[in-house]
């Protein structure tokens, strides 16, 4: 059993991360007093952070959107406790994939994973665990010309979609690639 009282004192693998996320999600006494919702900014609270793992509870409305991101060197897991989220996976040359994540659903990922999470149902709650703890993250933006760029951000920076991330590049690309 992997729970907050019995952590092994080392980095967790994906199975352990998924177990921990599910365990915390199934014990609302660990996070229920932290729940709040905001359409403008996802509401999130750190439940635990040590040298090997960090644990967050995140509250979602349908307006909340992380934008495309990765977790740098961290593996992670998500367990949905209430409501419903959608995980989006980026594809090249096609529409992104959408996977519904209703309450009771959990998934894990490695540091290779790029995704975007959005709220689907009102009053959704999820538990997110990362090992090693999040320190840097990659935030992605896609210009109107389809150019994908990664920006390294601190885990303390809230991830939000970037609408006009590279104005100079976009102006240059518009000049060279788009009919005026
Ligand atoms: Fe993520």
UniProtKB/TrEMBL annotation:
Similarity comment: family membership: Belongs to the cysteine dioxygenase family.
Keyword Nuclease among UniProt keywords: no
InterPro entries xrefs: CDO_1, RmlC-like_jellyroll, RmlC_Cupin_sf
Coiled-coil residue windows: none
GO molecular function, one term: dioxygenase activity
Name of this chain's protein: Cysteine dioxygenase
Pfam families, per database record: CDO_I (PF05995)
Organism this protein belongs to: Spongisporangium articulatum
Keywords: Dioxygenase, Iron, Metal-binding, Oxidoreductase
């Amino acid at each position: 059993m992997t729970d907050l009282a019995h952590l092994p004192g080392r980095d967790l693998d994906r199975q352990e991360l998924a177990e921990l996320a599910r365990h915390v999600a199934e014990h609302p006494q660990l996070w229920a007093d932290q729940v709040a919702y905001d359409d403008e900014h996802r509401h999130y609270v750190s439940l635990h952070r040590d040298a090997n793992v960090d644990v967050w509870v995140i509250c979602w409305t349908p307006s909340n959107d992380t934008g495309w991101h990765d977790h740098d060197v961290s593996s992670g897991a998500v367990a949905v406790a209430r409501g419903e989220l959608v995980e989006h996976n980026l594809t090249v040359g096609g529409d992104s994939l959408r996977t519904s994540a209703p309450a009771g659903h959990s998934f894990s990922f490695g540091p290779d994973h790029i995704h975007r999470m959005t709220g689907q149902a009102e009053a959704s709650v999820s538990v997110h665990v990362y090992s090693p703890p999040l320190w840097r993250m990659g935030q992605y933006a896609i210009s109107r010309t389809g150019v994908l760029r990664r920006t390294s951000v601190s885990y303390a920076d809230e991830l939000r979609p970037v609408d006009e991330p590279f104005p100079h590049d976009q102006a240059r690309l518009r000049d060279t690639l788009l009919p005026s």
